[in-house]
Amino acid sequence: MVQILSFQKTVWRLGEKPSSSINKALAMYPKPMRSVLFHRGVVDYKSSINFFNPTINGIHHPLLLHSMDKAVNTIIKALKNRSKICIHGDFDVDGVCGTAIILDYIKKIGGNVFYHIPHRVEEGYGISKNSLEKVIRNKTQLLITVDCGIRDIDLIDYAQKKGLTVIVTDHHLVKKDKDGKYILPNAEAIIHPQNPNGSYPYPYLSGAGTIWKLVCALELFFQGKPFTEVAVSYLDLVALATVCDIMPLTEENRVLVKLGLERVSAKERIGIKALIEQAGLASKSLNSYHLGYILGPRLNAAGRLSSADEALELLIAGEEAMAHAIASSLNSLNKHRQKLTEIALEEAEKQLTEKYPLIFVSGRNWNEGIIGLVAGKLMEKYHKPAIVVKEGEKIAKGSARSIKHFNIVDALHTFSEYILQFGGHEMAAGFTTTTDRLKPLKQSLLQFSAKTISEEHLIRELFIDDEISANEIDFNLTTLLNRVEPTGYMNPTPLFKIGPLRVIKVYAIGQESRHIKIFLLDPSTNKTLEGVWFDPPADAFAIREGDKIIIAGSIGEEEWNNHRKIQIKIKDIKIES
């Protein structure tokens, strides 16, 4: 019996094959592409055209959001009365981009508006008593939240009692009582894609995407149509927020990000242009990877280590000199953030134990702004839910990242008696507790994880779109695969199983020889392939010429000296022996 081992110790799950009727309906595409489309819900020619060519027609009307009309009327009234409007955002990319969108727009239409983004350490996530007091002292009359507020029932009540009219725009999970009944804040209007009183057709908008719908609704009032050039000009910020907040890149979000990427690439916004140049991307063709892993972290660095005001000022900058100065500062902050993350990760790994299927680590010297990054890196490396806590003298703040089978917000809700405040999504959450409650919270969550997370849940899965031969790989296929962009959460880069192949040449490449370049021969077709494996596990460097292997990887193009070639980006390898 042939023994097959995976270097990444993953289970390769081959996707379901399209039925004969779907294959017939998509017959104009090569077989690998038919599988890719089928796995993304595309089952006929018409839907494939919509998938490959997202247009503004794929965006839902803003008035489909519950109480949008009330929000518009409230803002119109405030504009007529010259009421002072405060935009209360949040310090992550989603919150900053959303704040920039509505702040800039209300200024354009003549509003008396200012913003408040909470300081991560001094005020914490979202609305707080501290931030409300600052808003009230500023003689605010209308408060519009961005990417926050849906769970702040008592704080919204407090704001109303102090004479503020409140519009909540948010996309985080709606609060429930112990019986599972939804609890909504007592606001003038609640704009939320999952508002239980509404029936919006797409539930996964980002915070910036949600506030952008309010801009579209206001444009409908002023201009008679929602998706004007003014409204569409903000899609660069919507795209950045959607990707960085790890929202599903499906349906409406796919359209928003696709159109937004065109705006980012056009470099129409002075601040985005400066950020792109500072990141060394000026000559690159930009995609969702650049938003999520290069531009986004630079914006996030401000809210993590300093004040997110700096990131916001970049996005609304009107002068190139100022934009370049801020972008340079953010670049330096990001480098410092990377160093702090490395140190904290190394210290966190020393606390790890194999006893439980959940990681819970804490430290007194870690910067609060990087604990979410550390949690994400631990989760990715060990494929376990990870909770990382910054311990203070009296208050402890935690950040959590989870795996597919463990809803981290539900877990926190289960032990909410130990928590002062929490919020987030199924896969990512944050919380605040008192330091003396940290130990019982940790023990409760660890024991809960032991009961609810099985060994099977901890096995990494690699979803494979199709099993193909080397002969099926050509430039026609790579051209079609490029059009699957923007890729990300729930629209992953297509992966294929290719092989068995014979290794004809293999060597280490890159800084510190961390990566592998490999040349392969398909014995059945005599066709050669080139692959590259970035940061493979250490034992992968034992692959030798003559080895017979099977590859899981994505197929793309590289260009060097005007020479275009096909290259496989390897995700995992199984070696036959």
TrEMBL record:
One of its GO terms (molecular function) is nucleic acid binding. Pfam families: DHH, DHHA1, RecJ_OB. It comes from the Bacteria. Keywords: Exonuclease, Hydrolase, Nuclease. Residues 84-242 form the DDH domain. Residues 360-448 form the DHHA1 domain. Residues 464-572 form the RecJ OB domain. SUPFAM superfamilies: DHH phosphoesterases. Belongs to the RecJ family. This is Single-stranded-DNA-specific exonuclease RecJ. It comes from candidate division CPR3 bacterium.
